[in-house]
Fold this protein.
Amino acid sequence: MSKKNSNVLAIGIMFFLFMMISFVTGLQNPFGIIVKNQFSATNFMSQLGNAANFIAYAFMGLPAGLILSKKGYKFTALLAVAIGFVGVCITFLSGRAESFGIYLLGAFISGFSMCMLNTVVNPMLNTLGGGGNSGNQLIQWGGSCNSLAATICPVFVGYLIGDAAKAQISDANPALFIAMGIFALAFVIILFSAIPEPELENAAKVQEQDTMAKVKGALSYRHFVLGIIAIFLYVGVEVGIPNFVNLYMTSPAIGISTAVAGTIVGMYWFLMLCGRLLGASIGGKVSSKTMMVSVSSIAIVLLLLGMILGNSTTVRFPAITSNLSFSLEPIPVGVMFFVLCGLCTSVMWGAIFNLAVEGLGKYTSIASGIFMVMVMGGGILPLIQGAVADAADSYLLSYIVALAGVAYILFFALFGSKPKKA
């Protein structure tokens, strides 16, 4: 197989893995509604499954980076897919046992898989793209596949749930079966595919370094340290916005059905898809810094509008109802502005990763592992947002957490992203 054809196949596999990450992670959004009602959970507790999924990154981030550097992309991907299959199986069993604890265990194990897959796909796509703007562009294309799966997941599960007040984990079984099928298929495809192994090639040329020495080397770059803080906050913002849109809309005060709410959340991810396609199209011409400054500034404005306007009026939004018919449904105007944030968060991951690892050279693989540790922000920030929502008895005020996160991301883009050793 020629190098060009091998690269095309490798890129295709990475795109497929990007979709898997999104679909399985996205299950935790509608599951928040399920556990809130099935187990009479608070807003804080409703985010524990999401937190378990993301906090797994804190445990697996560095080990995943080490596995990647020693065993290569193919082995790491196969191990991740196998772990993901087990995690989704446990989630399915939690529905049979009607156990909140088993549900959290399944989410936690699934998080190990998602962390490992993220550790593979980001540096692989950045490498295949040649780094720089081209590397960012390829990551944005992969992110578009990620957003496609994220768009489908809440719409599908929202339809399966039906009446939020009677929601059960077992209602989502069809989605869990699909996830298990995707993992099984992915394992076979990856097993019989040839994937370039630049990490193994580099390992043969570069003398082995102590793990802590590698970590210390990566953390000696000031822009990388600021970048991992940015990614911690970004993932929390990206996850928190749609999670609390879903809880807000299905709350008794608003009373929107789970099917319609799932469609609205799906629209957030669809707008992320649109943004990533646009970002991928112009990524070779527009710098990551310019992209970041623009979208984070707009996101701040949208979040403020959503919080201030709230439920002051309603707007008609395209949605799929519980009987699978399409209609324009009235939703709070604040929700519309929160959903529009999807256009802004769409390109942040690839741009932050690209800016943060610029110039790291031999430390890139371990840096990717450190990045994965900081993805735990996707679990911690929504927990904080849930605590704020409970304390203030207001979903709208809880968005102050997302606002603070985006403000830091703007700071990183403007002042913290210039490659520099500490």
In short: The beta strands are 314-320, 326-332. Residues 13 and 190 are 7 Å apart (CA to CA). Residues 3-193+211-416 form a domain with the Growth Hormone; Chain: A; fold (CATH 1.20.1250.20). The longest helix spans residues 48-97.
